[in-house]
Here is the input.
Amino acid sequence: MALKLDLQKRLAAEILKCGVHRIKFDVERLEEIMEAITREDVKRLIKDGAIYKEQKKGISRARVERRKKHGPGSRKGGKYSRVSRKELWMIKVRAQRKKLKQLRDRKLITGTTYRKIYRMVKAGAFKSAAAMMEYLEQNKLIRRPLI
Here is the structure.
């Protein structure tokens, strides 16, 4: 005897907001499900657990992520097509200015030194914040706190 439960499946799919293929019935309560012909009947059966929605199957991307290459051989485009010269400059200068502000706020450099080095940063005198720190230490412009 083939059971016709298409109506119940369709109603349950609409109520649970999923496709009909994800709707599953409790096999021991099929007679009860067959008798359900209104939306209210189907809602009640969903609440009781006789009709339920099957969990979606996911596809793991772990292998794909492991396979991806980021080395120089897989890079397309020139050096500055990936990160523009301007963006590199902005990253570099912002890091130097941030470091400079920290030094001034912690009173490790004077206001005049801050302004002088700030102008040097703008002129592109240092290639990194570390290079700027090296310059400050070499020229004894940084005050080390007494410990």
Observations:
- The beta strands are 23-25, 51-53.
- Helices lie at 6-16, 30-35, 39-48, 62-67, 79-82, 85-105, 111-123, 129-138.
